[in-house]
Structures are given as structure tokens and as C-alpha cells.
Amino acid sequence: MGEPSAGEDRYSPKPTIRKPHQRRLSLLPLVFLIFYEVSGGPFGVETSVQAGGPLLALLGFLIFPLIWSIPEALLTAELGTMFPENGGYVIWVQAAFGPFWGFQEGWWKWLSGVIDNALYPVLFLDYLKSAIPEVADGPLRLAAVLVITAFLTYLNFRGLTIVGWTAVALGLFSLLPFCVMALLALPRLEPANWLQTDFGDVDWNTYLNTLFWNLNYWDSVSTLVGEVDNPMQTLPKALISALLLVCGGYLVPLLTGTGALKVVRSDWADGYFADIAKILGGVWLRWWMEAAAALSNMGMFEAEMSSDSFQLLGMAERGMLPQMFAYRSRYETPTLGILASASGVLLLSWMSFREIIAAENYLYCFGMFAEFAAFIWLRLKKPNISRPYRVPLDTIGVFLLCTPPSVLLVLVMVLATWKVILVSFTAAFIGFMLYPCLVISNKKQWLHFSFSPDLPNLPTDDMSGISVKRNVSGVPVDKDTCSDPEIGLLLS
């Protein structure tokens, strides 16, 4: 996917970000964590058939990875190995445009991630309600959401190594029933079914949002890079492996379901794969499919919460958030980041499936515009920074690589409802207000901020606009409490 860079500049990542901390994530767990951050299997793609028919659904999952997933994965591979720390995309944007926009990126992407995570208890219960109708609504549904969220939050608290290897086991179990279903469907396949569509009856908003939701978040792994063993080599390999796994995990079930049965588009709602499994294999396969859906949602919840919470830890280590967000539990997990993410999930769990994916997609668009801009800007302005993994394109090629996904971002935003637009811009406005509040809190010493001395300096000497010479953190670090004497002198 790329090549090493020979040039080297002021940003030379150290072998380890935090001296007492060990990088424990190896290749296979990282592949399945990416798989769960992006996909988790085909649970939820049913609405693409309902919205556009079999042909558009299949074409979408063939073409969309080319114009979106591959560019995002390539960007993540280059920038993630340039800045191998837990701030991830926040650090990329800060390095390009300074701490204010780095903080906004963190706010947009964290909020988008929390909204995304609120979906998984909802999706799990949508599958479960066919077997247990009582969880469809009412007090029992609310209690189920609380119990599921509390249990999965505790698992996340117990450690990223456990989460990673659990993701491997869950991923294999969740994909196996689709393999069995595909084998059972072979004698019944009717290829003509795959060509059905009605361009006059397409819900483009739902169709594009479903594709976008099921094939984005490749950059989420960047907030875990500080935990990865040998990230310069492991991250690019994990991204390309996960890309193949994700695309195959969507196309095979869609080909199976639309090819083996007569397609009634209205039937293709959330959880319909369980009904297909019953038709093709019997009740036993349906139960397996529902169990796979439940466990898949568990994996997606765990992976997303890991990314969200370690993002907050990475921001705190750069001085963008109060130091308390950088505290780790005895299991090396960011305790406050996990609690903050879990609280957001509970607050948003009342939303419906379509409302959730529309709201998160819009906020995600804000963040991706910033990431594509940072990618191009750093190529233009900082060409000699060491790039252990470099996308094999020149500056014009990088610009062309980012153009199709940027056009897609505009399309997703234009098709959004006014409700989603209003909520998203309100959330963005809150982020604009939060930054100066944190600056004041630091100056007044209401909250304690610090910059980890084990982190390398960012190439933002002339971009931050906060300190006279340079500011290597986000919110200005208190010179009286900062552990780095050089930064303290710069702020004095």
C-alpha cells in the first residue's frame, strides 16, 4: 500500500510513547479491532436493499470501498505511522492547523463515535426482539440497554489486550453462520435476482447513509496506535487485511440473501438476515445468526469504546484535556475516558437506528474534511517529516485521492434532514465554545493540564497562534505545573 520515506524532520517518533507503558496489541487482534470499528459483519446492511434494491446494494458495496474505504485506509496508514500515539487523527489535525482545530477534530470525532456506540445496544435488541418480543419497547428494553452497556463497559475497563483477543474470537463466531448460509444457498441461487432495481423508487438518503456507516471509521484505529506493537509495520498490514475481511463480509451475505430468495424490499429491515437463515437452514441457523448478531454488537461496542476512550487519553497527554483524562487504571485502560463514553451511550440510546446513523455520519463528515485537509497540508508544508509508511503518490496524486471521498462527504451532508443538520451544527458550536472555556480553566488553574514529556514535539511552530514561539500541546499548559521545563519556559 505504500513505501518508506527517506526524509526526516523535527518530528522523529521515539520507540515508545510512554516509557513505563508496553505496547501489547499485535497484528491479528488489531485486524479484528479494525474489523469491528468499521463493520462487525453484515448486520445492519439490510436497509441498503430496502432503500435501493439488490443491484444498487451490491454495486454500492463494490464501488464504495474504492472511492471511500481505500483512501481513508491509506490516509490512516501514512498519518498513523507518522504520529504513532493515542491522539490519532486529533494529532494529525493539530500538527497541520494548530491546537484549536485539533481540539475541534477531537470533539467531532469523539461525539460521532459515542453516537455510533449508542447504536449497538439498539441493534442487538432489534435482533433479539424476534425471539423475545418483550424487549421491543417499554421498561424492559430500557433495562436491557442499561445492563448491556454496564457489562460491556466493564469488559472494556479490564484491558485492551483482552478486548483485542476477544474481538478475534467474536469475529470468527459471527462470520461462520454466513459461510454456512452461503453454502446452503448455492443450489437456490438465481443470478437474475441480483439485477433487480427500480431507480424511480430509491431512498437515496437511507441508501447512502447505510453505505457510509458500514464502510467508514477506518481512521478510528489511529487512537489505539500508541498501544500497538511495532506500529510502523503492523498498522499498514492490519488495515489492508481488515479491508479484505470487511468487503467480503458484506458481499457474500448480500449475494446469498438476494440471490437465493425472491426479493421483497420491504422485508429487508434490520434483523432480516436471521429470517433468511431460518428459511435456508432452519431454526438452528436462525438462533446461531441471532447469537452472532448479539456477539458482533458486543465486539463493535468494545472496539468503538476503546477508540473513543483512548482518544481522550491521547488528547489529555497533549494538554488538550485536563490531566485526569490521562489517568490509567491498573489494567492500563483510561478510566475516565471509558466512563465518559459510556455516559454518552446511555444518553443517546433512545434514538432510532436511522436517526443514529444520520446524526453520526454528519458529524463524522466534519472530522473527515479536516483529516483530508491535514493529509494534503502536511504533504505540502512538511514534506520532510519521517513517513515510515508513505502512500506512493505525489502531492497531486494525494489531492486526487482525496477528491472522490470529499465529494461523497458533501453529498451525504446535502441529503441530510434539517433536523440532523440543526443537531450537528449545534454540537459543533458547543465544541467552539468548549475550547476557550478550557483555556480559561487552565489560566485560572481551575483544572490541571499537563503535557507528557515522553511525547515528541509536533511540527506546529508557526501554526498554533497561542504561544509566542511554539505550543506543543493543545490547551496551553500551565508553566507552573508542566513537567517539561522547556515548555514552561516558552509559556513564561
Cα separation of the termini: 45 Å
Identify the overall geometry: globular
* Beta-strand share of residues: under 5%
Give the SSE order as H and E letters: HHHHHHHHHHHHHHH
- Output mean pLDDT: 83
The stretches of 5 or more residues where confidence is low (pLDDT under 50) are 3-19, 461-492
Counting DSSP E segments of at least 2 residues, the number of strands comes to 0
Q: How does the helix and strand content classify structurally?
A: mainly alpha
Question: How would you describe what is shown here?
Answer:
With 492 residues, the chain is mostly helical. It has 15 helices and no strands. The chain has helices at residues 27-38, 46-82, 89-97, 99-128, 139-157, 160-185, 204-214, 231-260, 272-281, 283-317, 335-348, 353-381, 395-414, 418-443, 485-491. α2 packs across α7 (204-214) and α9 runs antiparallel to α10. It is globular, with a radius of gyration of 22 Å.
Descriptors:
disordered C terminus; 15 helices; disordered N terminus; globular; mainly alpha; 492 residues; single chain
